[in-house]
Design the sequence.
């Protein structure tokens, strides 16, 4: 719980940051500004997915090194991961500076927002090296058991966005009025301030990942370590991209039922995203603690870690589902005023909230297995069920049961994924000798 609590809050803050910026843009500049930022999101998510994968790979290996009490190896892994992030960020920045407008046209961005969308996109892409360092830093710190520092860093970046975005939109305090670029500038300022504070804090608490002489000396691309990080990180990133593409397919199915269905989906998604943070955070916690146990040569602890995480997910998932079910109507009424759409959204929310309990189980199992470097089969199971069952099933059930049929596909596919993950976990993974990768 000491590890988990700050991470849940950090995930909520990260989501709130984007939500708050969207509210400011929509309320103060209108829907075209909001659309300009939204047009860039599919591109940004692909880049972020890679960084999430890189962060997952580095945090697992750092967790193993930390469990083995190898601070020099922790710094070597951190230096290699940061080098990879900087190289990737620099390539994205170069790409963004040269090809932003053609890329936005390739995405069929509407003509009335193309100029603003290009401006915002170029600004964010040029800032990718710093964003990559920030995202990697917060992930790697989890590997050494530090979730408080990332939480405070995200609190700072969220607070900066909360103050600076409207100030730049309105030109308060003598600041220039930047229009849609305000969101991008405030995001960059928030990350810059957070990184500066994070550097100070890590030196103050003498973290093994503090930006001191030892880390600077480790800041180089060690190809053997890079290969190990990518071995764990790439499948995780691919799974993120696959899930995102599947979500686009689901949205297109929902859109075919009209704007009421789309509105219901949007409201349900807002609430469900917050309900999923705790169960996803439990899975990340299980992965890090498992990696540390493997590094310490205490593989016999993996069963207890997995069982504890599953029990916590059961309690948290059920508690959130009960609360969400009880307050479904008043929560959804914050977004929806039409009674017909509200009734539809309540039904959908009940299905997806209880499906989250099953989701928590299978991502916990796959996260524990990832801690040992076993990622290919668990990832293949998740992506395979997604492509071969969930999406076709969503389409088929929607033909017979309408909109609710799309949501019925989620618990069915989650159950199959859980069954296959559990089978692999019990019959294959638990029979393997577990060895650290560092």
Sequence:
């Amino acid at each position: 719980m000491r590890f988990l609590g700050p991470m849940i809050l950090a995930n909520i803050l990260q989501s709130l940051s984007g939500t708050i910026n969207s509210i400011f843009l929509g309320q103060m500049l209108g829907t075209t500004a909001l659309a300009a930022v939204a047009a860039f999101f599919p591109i940004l998510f692909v880049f972020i997915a890679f960084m999430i994968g890189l962060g997952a790979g580095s945090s697992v290996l750092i967790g193993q090194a930390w469990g083995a009490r190898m601070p020099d190896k922790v710094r070597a892994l951190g230096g290699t991961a940061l080098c990879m992030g900087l190289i990737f960020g620099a390539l994205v920045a170069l790409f963004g500076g040269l090809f932003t407008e053609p890329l936005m046209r390739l995405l069929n961005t509407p003509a009335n927002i193309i100029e603003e969308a290009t401006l915002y996109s170029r600004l964010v892409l040029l800032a990718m090296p710093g964003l990559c360092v920030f995202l990697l830093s917060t992930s790697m710190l989890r590997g050494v058991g530090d979730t408080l520092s990332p939480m405070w860093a995200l609190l700072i970046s969220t607070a900066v966005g909360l103050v600076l975005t409207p100030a730049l939109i309105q030109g308060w305090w003598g600041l220039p009025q930047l229009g849609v670029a305000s969101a991008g500038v405030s995001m960059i300022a928030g990350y810059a301030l957070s990184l500066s504070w994070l550097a100070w804090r890590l030196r103050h608490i003498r973290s093994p990942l503090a930006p001191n002489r030892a880390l600077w000396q480790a800041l180089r691309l060690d190809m053997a370590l890079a290969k190990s990080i990518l071995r764990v990180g790439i499948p995780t990133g691919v799974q993120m991209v696959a899930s995102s593409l599947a979500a686009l397919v689901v949205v297109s199915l929902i859109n075919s039922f009209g704007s009421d269905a789309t509105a219901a989906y949007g409201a349900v998604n807002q609430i469900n995203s917050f309900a999923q943070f705790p169960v996803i955070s439990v899975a990340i916690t299980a992965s890090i603690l498992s990696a540390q146990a493997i590094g310490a040569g205490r593989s016999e602890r993996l069963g207890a870690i997995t069982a504890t995480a599953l029990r916590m997910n059961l309690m948290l998932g059920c508690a959130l589902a009960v609360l969400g079910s009880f307050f479904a109507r008043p929560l959804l009424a914050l977004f929806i005023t039409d009674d017909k759409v509200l009734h539809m959204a309540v039904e959908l929310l009940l299905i997806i909230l209880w499906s989250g309990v099953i989701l928590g189980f299978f991502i916990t199992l796959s996260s524990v297995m990832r801690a040992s470097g076993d990622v290919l089969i668990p990832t293949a199971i998740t992506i395979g069920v997604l492509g071969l069952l969930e999406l076709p099933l969503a389409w088929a059930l929607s033909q017979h049961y309408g909109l609710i049929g799309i949501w019925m596909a989620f618990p069915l596919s989650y159950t199959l994924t859980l069954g296959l993950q559990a089978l692999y976990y019990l019959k294959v993974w638990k029979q393997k000798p577990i060895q650290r990768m560092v």
